[in-house]
Amino acid sequence: MPAKGGVSCFVAFLAAFPAVTPLARAANRRPPQTGDGPFVRACDAFGSGYIAIPGTSSCLSINGYVWYQVGASNDRGGIASGFAQDHNYYPRGGWINDSRGAVTFDLRTPSEWGVLQGQIRLIDDFSNELSWSTPPGGGGWLGADQAWFKAGGFLAGYTESAWTATQANWISSWGSHSWNGLWYGYQQRELVQYSFGTDKGTFGTVSLEAGTGEASSYVPDMVAVFGYQRRWGAVWAKAGYDRAIRKGGPSGYSISIGAQLALGGPGSSLRLLGFYSDSDNAYGTSGPYHGSGVNGAGDGSAEWSFLMSYRYQMTPAVAVSAGGQYFVNFYKARSNQKTGLDGYSLEGTAVWYPFSDIEIRSEIEYDKVDGLDGSFGGFLRFTRFF
User: Fold this and answer.
1) What is the pTM of this model?
2) With b meaning 16 or more CB within 10 Å and e meaning fewer, what string describes 281-295?
3) Rounded to whole angstroms, how far apart are CA atoms 172 and 317?
4) Which segments of the chain does DSSP mark as H helices, in order?
5) Which one of 24, 115, 128, 148 has the largest count of C-beta atoms within 10 Å of its C-beta?
6) What is the DSSP letter of 85?
7) Is it the case that residue 381 has pLDDT exceeding 70?
8) Which of 352, 228, 234, 242 lies closest to 299, judged by CA?
9) Cβ distance 127 to 140 under 8 Å?
10) Average pLDDT, the chain
11) Nearest Cα residue to 8 out of 71, 69, 61, 46
């Protein structure tokens, strides 16, 4: 989104202060020439929303969003073991109100190594319940959930795992078409990675990632992604190696294959994803069979999982989507022991953009695991982007 007037005016205000040396005062008496003087100008080299920083070759974008949402669920967040784990909320009864503010600072500079980029995103949440909206890595209600440096295809810092998001091509990122995305193993990591390719051919990523909840080691977790995209859509494959599926325990791995096909007109598409895991490791799908009251401290991964989601762009301002996911043979928490339990999840989403920077979104999800009661959850959200 373009930077708004407040940011531009602030930069202009700082840049407009004259130097105080005699030489500078003398120079200021010269009639202004074309291109002279401190001023704020757009920086089109990196797309809309960037402004040039006076005196440098760098460009800065400041953008973000604020939202308010209300939701509910019959799941109790693992407190009651009789429910499958809901994806959205951990309530103790009543409506859940959640407000969030997020701002991203993105600095880019052209160089012989390609574009040098640094990004940090700050998130602040306000909620009447402890919920999934707590910033990852934030250590509370306020935190930075993005902090990384990028030079060409090289990236280092804290951001989404390559299992979650592919820097070279976002079409292979996330899960279904909804904001929650059903179950696909979302996570953020400290990492070092290299990505190559574009959205018009082959693309890939190799990522070395710090383990989560493990003993210290010189061996990192690893992810590899490879795919191909054209106008008809894309296909891709991912593999993730978890060095230790529990502290001091054995390693594990997961494999995923996916495709997105352009069907039904501009903006409409079908996504198909398949997953295999040899254990309840970090690169599994996660799933509704997890939580302290259901499966200890595990992620809820299954041996096999299949996901299908379709998004239909009804008008330029209105879209709907529906998705489902099936799980075969959940694992016991942080182990390679199979439970023999299966499960499934269903979701529906409706999104309306009444204005270019306003989104109204509603989502509902149902989760079910063999032997556990089904769990409903959903929300209505109002978002303002800037």
Assistant:
1) 0.84
2) bbbbbbbbbbbeebb
3) 24
4) 5-15, 22-28
5) 148
6) P
7) yes
8) 242
9) no
10) 84
11) 61
